[in-house]
Request: fold
Amino acid sequence: MTAEINLQHLFLLPLPVTAPGLNARLGGLIIKRCDGMLNALGKAEFAGMKLPEHLLPSPVYLLKQDLNPQLFKRGMSEYELYAHVQELLAPAHVLPVVFGYKYLFYLNAAAMRCFKEPDLFFKKDVLDLKVALQAARLFGSLQERRLPAEALSSLHAAAEVLGFKGPDGLLSRADALPFVLQFLRTHDLPILQFCLKGRTERLRRLEQSLKNGSLVVYCDGTEFAAARCTDLKEDQAELVCCTRDYSVKRIKLDLSAPVLIAPQGVLTLPRQEHLGFDLNKAAALLSDAALAQEPPEDQRRPLLRELFMGKLSAKEQELFHDIGSRNPQLLPPAPLWAGEFFKELYFLYQADNFQASLVDSELNAYRLLCRRHLARHLPLYLKETQTAASLLDEDDVKGQELFLQIVRFPETL
Reply:
């Protein structure tokens, strides 16, 4: 990763408003810049996105993050938000830092909706503080505190248990990120430095595992496993993993994901005893899995790009790349031979991001599509508000007020 001399930390706090997947949406990001010594470079920024008129956010995601849905009725288009993040990440001396890479990778879905390859983080290493804290809990300073895994489940929970006391407010949430990074610098510098080696180190360890069958330690911020690499391509790897409860499964790993892939030597005998994890037993189970006729539980879900491109014909994939290289406001009509998925993707790309370029007939078609989508999604939204209601504390007045805003949101569209 970037050398620390001229280093700038770009702390990113994504605000997911839907579940993961091809339709994953961010309501925006909170952005804070700091220099190599973690001194703030200006004020934190809320880069908000205006949600498309055909989309309803998730009530549960809004409530859990204390987000008023009215916040996302204005802001940048998805195209503008992606371009803004792309510009922020462009300088070589910028290191993006997050807590939980899953939500940052929602930008990959945004890229494909904007007819771009989802390679933003394949070119740029990311530091995931959640992964580093998990390693510190398993192998470092947090080991002695015997923290439950739930203590690191969210940025708020992790920062609070480490002693962070910050003001309330959307922009203030970004202050917890440099606080956690400073904690790791002070208490777990070797672990942090290992995480900072990034994709190059992950790839090296996986290549060794594939070549000689050696085990690696896998941490993704939530799960810990002993693993062996069984296949390695340019952008992905396949692993067979033995988890803490000795279940064996196969997973597919996006090589741009900032997981920790460490040598099995980090699992010293004292650490194995502390973790209640027998490495020899795990190795035997992984060997049995390799020899067994029946494969272990297979969780090799297709990566996002595979899912997306699987919906396009070869001819549509070619057109996808051509559209991405053109001026987005001067695009020709979709070809008649294109499938319905491609046609709607293409139309929404233009209508969601460049509505001023639509002619009257296209604008009317867009409004009709929005009404149709909202009518289909409204019952699901209302059903999810019932789930959100179960998360409320009856004494939380602020939460009750937010919940009412969420329930009434569809009426404002």
